[in-house]
C-alpha cells in the first residue's frame, strides 16, 4: 500500500499487503478467489485487530448501491457497502424506516451487523436482529444465500467477517415514524438507584451519559414520540443543545428540545452531514444482563477515580434479547456500558483490565469491535452457541481465507 492504512481512530495500523476497492461482484469474486487471505473493511470504526489481515483488505464502498424494497414493503435488500445514513435517507423517502440506528449513521450496515452493534431501547433488538437474509461470497467464488428458513442464519448474522464477504443483506423495515429528543442534566444518584428501570423504559430510546466524576448522571437523552415537559426524575431540562462530551460543539448532534422529526434524524446522536469527532479516542463496551444493571453501575462506581482519569464520556443503554449465536445480547435483555476513552492506549488498557475484572462476575460480554483484554477462552465460554459458530466457520471457509490471527486465537 502506498501509505499506512489505519482504522478510524488511528490506534490500529493495518498490515494488509494492499487495499482493494472492487466496483462489481465479478471484480470482488476475482479478488477473493486469488487472495489467499482476505478481510473486509467496513467503515473502519473498530478499535482492535478484528478487521486486519496480512492478505488483501477489501472495501465494498465502490460497489453499486442497491436499495430494493420488497413488493410487500416489509423488507429491503441492500448492498454490502452501504452506510446507515445513506440507507435511512432512501428509506425515509419511501415512507419506511429501520427499527433502530446506532449513535453514528456513518457506519456500514454490514460491519455493524457483523459485530452486534446496537442502538438503544428496552424493546429494541440490536441492528443485527433486523437481518432477514444474507448473501455471502465464499472463498471459492460461490454465493450462499441464507434467510430465516435456514438454521445457519442465526449463526451467520453476527459473523465477525469469518464466513465470507457479505455482498447483500435483506433487512426488516417498518412504516416511517417521528420522534422527539429531549436532553436532561444532573440526574441525582438517588433517582438512578430508585427508578433505574423506569428511567430506561421512559422512551423509545434512552441513553445516560456520565464522566464518572460524580455519583449521578450528567445527561439523559430521551427519544420518544409523545411530548413531555418539566423535570425528569429530578433531572432538569437542558437550556440548549448539548453534545455528550462536555466542551464539544453541539452543532453536529441531532436536533433536541422536543421538536418532532423523522426517525433517522432523532435515533442517531450525530448528524450524517457532520463528522462526530476527529477520531482522537478509544472505545470499549461491555454488555451485561439487564437484571444486573445496578450491580454493574455500582461495580464501575468502585473504580470511579481510575475510570474518570482516562475517560471522555460513558454511555449507558439497553438492548432487547435475541437468538443470534454471537450477539452480545444472546438470550438476555442487556445493559450496555460504553466507554469513550482518551487516545492513550498505554494509559487506558490497565483501566480496561480492571473494569473487566469487576464486571466479569456479572457475565459481561465485550463488544466485538472495541478495546478489550478478555481471553479467547473466556469469550468462548460466554456464548452458549460458540462451538456451533466455530463449526459453521469451518464449513463455510475450510481453508481459512477469511481468518486472521485475531480470529485464529478466538476460534482455536
TrEMBL record:
Keyword list (alphabetical) reads:
Oxidoreductase
Instruction: Provide the FAD-binding PCMH-type domain boundaries.
Output: 12-176
A molecular function (GO) term = L-gulono-1,4-lactone dehydrogenase activity
Ranges annotated as spanning the membrane: none
Mind telling me which InterPro entries this protein's record contains?
A: ALO_C, FAD-bd_PCMH, FAD-bd_PCMH-like_sf, FAD-bd_PCMH_sub1, FAD-bd_PCMH_sub2, FAD_lactone_oxidase-like, Oxid_FAD_bind_N, Vanillyl_alc_oxidase_C-sub2
An example Gene Ontology CC term for this record: membrane
Q: Which domain of life is it from?
A: Bacteria
This one is known as: Xylitol oxidase
Organism of derivation: Actinoplanes philippinensis
Amino acid at each position: 500500500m502506498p501509505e499506512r492504512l489505519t482504522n478510524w481512530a488511528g490506534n490500529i495500523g493495518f498490515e494488509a499487503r494492499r487495499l482493494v476497492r472492487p466496483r462489481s461482484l465479478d471484480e470482488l469474486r476475482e479478488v477473493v478467489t486469488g487472495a489467499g487471505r482476505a478481510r473486509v473493511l467496513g467503515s473502519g470504526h473498530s478499535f482492535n485487530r478484528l478487521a486486519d489481515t496480512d492478505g488483501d483488505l477489501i472495501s465494498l464502498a465502490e460497489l453499486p448501491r442497491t436499495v430494493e424494497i420488497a413488493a410487500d414493503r416489509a423488507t429491503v435488500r441492500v448492498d454490502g457497502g452501504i452506510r446507515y445514513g445513506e440507507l435511512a435517507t432512501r428509506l425515509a423517502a419511501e415512507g419506511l424506516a429501520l427499527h433502530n440506528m446506532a449513535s453514528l449513521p456513518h457506519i456500514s450496515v454490514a460491519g455493524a451487523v457483523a459485530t452486534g452493534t446496537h442502538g438503544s431501547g428496552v424493546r429494541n433488538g440490536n441492528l443485527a436482529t433486523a437481518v432477514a437474509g444474507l448473501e455471502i461470497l465464499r472463498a471459492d467464488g460461490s454465493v450462499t444465500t441464507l434467510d430465516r428458513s435456514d438454521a445457519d442464519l442465526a449463526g451467520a448474522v453476527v459473523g465477525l467477517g469469518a464466513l465470507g464477504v457479505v455482498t447483500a443483506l435483506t433487512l426488516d423495515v417498518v412504516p416511517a415514524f417521528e420522534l422527539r429528543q429531549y436532553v436532561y442534566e444532573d440526574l441525582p444518584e438517588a433517582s438512578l438507584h430508585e427508578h433505574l428501570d423506569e428511567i430506561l423504559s421512559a422512551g423509545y430510546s434512552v441513553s445516560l451519559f456520565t464522566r464518572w466524576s460524580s455519583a449521578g448522571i450528567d445527561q439523559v437523552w430521551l427519544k420518544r414520540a409523545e411530548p413531555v415537559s418539566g423535570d425528569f426524575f429530578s433531572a432538569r431540562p437542558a437550556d440548549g443543545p448539548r453534545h455528550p462530551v462536555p466542551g464539544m460543539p453541539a452543532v453536529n448532534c441531532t436536533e433536541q428540545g422536543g421538536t418532532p422529526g423523522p426517525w433517522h434524524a432523532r435515533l442517531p446522536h450525530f448528524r450524517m452531514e457532520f463528522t462526530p469527532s476527529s477520531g482522537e479516542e478509544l472505545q470499549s463496551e461491555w454488555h451485561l444482563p439487564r437484571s444486573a444493571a445496578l450491580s454493574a453501575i455500582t461495580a464501575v462506581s468502585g473504580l470511579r477515580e481510575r475510570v474518570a482519569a482516562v475517560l471522555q464520556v460513558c454511555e449507558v443503554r439497553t438492548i432487547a434479547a435475541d437468538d443470534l449465536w454471537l450477539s452480545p445480547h444472546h438470550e438476555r435483555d442487556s445493559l450496555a456500558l460504553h466507554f469513550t476513552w482518551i487516545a492513550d492506549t498505554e494509559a487506558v488498557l490497565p483501566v480496561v483490565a480492571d473494569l473487566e475484572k469487576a464486571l466479569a462476575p456479572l457475565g459481561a460480554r465485550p463488544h466485538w469491535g472495541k478495546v478489550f483484554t478478555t481471553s479467547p477462552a473466556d469469550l468462548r465460554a460466554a456464548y452458549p452457541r460458540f462451538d456451533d459458530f466455530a463449526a459453521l466457520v469451518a464449513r463455510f471457509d475450510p481453508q481459512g481465507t477469511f481468518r486472521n490471527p485475531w480470529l485464529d486465537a478466538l476460534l482455536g
